[in-house]
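Subject: for your reference before the review

Hello V.,

The reviewers asked for a structural picture of the protein, and I figured it would be easier to keep everything in one thread rather than splitting it across files. Below is the amino acid sequence we used in the manuscript, unchanged from the supplementary table.
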Amino acid sequence: MPASSSTHSARLAGRLALAALAALLAAFGATGPAPAMPPANAAAAPLLGFTPAHAAEERALEARFDAALRREELAPWLKRLSARPHHLGSAYDKENAEFIAGLYRSWGYDTRIEEFRVLYATPKERRLEMTAPQPFTASLAEPPLPEDATSGQTAEQLPTFNVYSIDGDVTGDLVYVNYGVPKDYDELERRGIDVKGKIAIARYGGSWRGIKPKVAAEHGAVGCIIYSDPHEDGYFQGDVYPQGGYRPEHGAQRGSVADMPLYSGDPLTPGVGATPDAKRLDIKDAKTLTHIPVLPISYADATPLLRALAGPMAPAAWRGALPFPYHLGPGPARVHLRLAFDWKLVPAYDVIARLPGAEHPDEWIVRGNHHDAWVNGATDPLSGQVAVLEEAHAVAALVKSGWRPKRTLIYTAWDGEEPGLLGSTEWAETHAAELREKAVLYLNSDSNGRGFLAASGSHTLERLVGQVAQDVVDPETHVSVAARRRAATRVEGTPVERKQARSGELRIGALGSGSDYTPFLQHLGIASLDLAYGGEGHYGQYHSIYDSYDHYMRFMDPTMQYGITLAQTAGRVVLRVAEADVLPFDFQRFSDTVGRYVKEVEELADKLREETEDHNRAIEEKLFEAAADPTETWVTPKPKPPVPHINFAPLENARDRLDKSAHAYQAALDQAGPGAGGLDAGARQRLDRVLLEAERALTGPGLPRRPWYVHQIYAPGFYTGYGVKTLPGVREAIEERKWQEVDEQMIATAKALEAFAGEVDRATAILKSAGGAAAPARAAR
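And here is what came back from the structure prediction:
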């Protein structure tokens, strides 16, 4: 269940026109075949959080770390871990956890497996049939391929299904709802079509899959079918497997449909760890289960259903790549959907491996990637997992040479991520108090492949990521991964992104949900990052039996170069945070980012007001009737309540306070010298404490209707799932036209920003209080 995103193909989006990219890379000096090294002055370049002397030591340490990385280990590990299906609760899932734990123990980590008991459901019965206008029974099966050695492990494979769908036996007329997001139902209403008492069929894409049955149920549907249209990850994208890497006609996407925007983790233990003695909800009271039965199918099984639909033609943007007209219905296609599941508690095995810090053992850097998969899972998640293993091995090699990290490193391999971030959430909830006290950073990865650096996370870490990206060499183009990322942005970015790229800045995205950073960042307020490479692989096998070793080694990263590149990138983040003289957080970038978010919600309100006025004016002037085709059914929409003028002053004042505090901190830090070199050890320790706790200040009492999410700056959207909403309380209140809530959330968000600015001021005071020692220290240099 990758981060970023929506579907995995969305996370790896952005493949570039190669000719244009080659020309632009040439401008960066990538004209020869020989690998380029980091910039010649890299050794002298300052490192965020380090004194100059320690920066040189850090770069020497990183060179030794790079030398210890072994590319030849990655493919054998990938083959071993993906040799059999290893979904949550399976025998091979446990074997993989024990294998990973054994590696960590052999390298000298203090390692244990923590077990949780979580709700899981596997299919007992799946039936989908069309009863009119002609009979058809869906196969609901992915056939083995001779070119894929593990695709025939039928006895161990989970069938195609959506976990946390309820049981159900329903029959109804079929309605095509496009991606099945709220705006699609507005379009259906305009055409006089509703889904009440009917079964909705939606295509994958446009949002996280769990949103589709959620919105369908809100509109009265009795069932939901989700199919993979070849437009999104099949032959529209390229040759299908096994000739190419994209989804074949019988390939289907398994996945969770839990309502994770409410809370992630075990559905029965929200907010507490799913330990054996935990108090559990009754299944009927679990709010994250669907309200209607839902089933994923292939485009081969979807074709007869969609062909049988009549009614209006679908809007042009709704039409996929199947070779027939897309109609909306309802009917005459009528379908029967029957699902039954085996609901039980199963074990989730989290591997936890520690290296205690030598100087600051109570400051923790947590590094994670999950190990469970829907089937064999070579790309998702094992491509990331093997990179983490080699990263951890190289760190252990440093320890064997006599080095010890200043801060404690915790490497993790999570279980149960695919059903809903179960392993990471239950561990984070179980250890919540200790994590709030000690965790400096959570660093996540998931799937990985050839291509470009994707980085998202807390914007206090943006400068750190930019410095790391400048020091890692892309294995294909031999420029830094930062330069290649900027090149990609210059070719395909938005005007704002292109401007930022020209300035030399590397910007990171904001985190929504979809991978294991969620409980750390959005529930506990721990600064977090998510890193991956991708965009050049041919990946249409997301959550299918064809996400295999054979597929990965042909179409994703055959030489495993980008596994090593991910290890170099994430390893540098881990080492720099572990070894920094003071924690390498930057407040100016965060302040600038918050300023953009404030501007966005102000513009959102103005745009919504203008659109509402235009909409109501069109109704008054009967423009909808005049514009409608009289031979088709069109329903004039209802007027919308006017959008009031919103007082953004609390948010603007908090933004201004934060900006002033961030600049004052930077000035004080500059006065203290790189790495706060003018501070004594005690002052640095006090400064670290404030920096560690700063992100916690951005949490509040919880977002409306979903109090598990407490971060006031980043959250998954209530109707986007994976997709992020920034300033979520304010933004979603505006989008949903809850005007009293806008005022309430404005105050809550402003209070969080004020509290964060207060933490920045505390850090500034520590720097200034030690200012007397700074001048002699600078004079000595």
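For the response letter, the relevant points are probably these. DSSP finds 26 helices and 16 strands in the chain. The longest helix spans residues 587-620.

Happy to draft the paragraph if you're swamped.

O.
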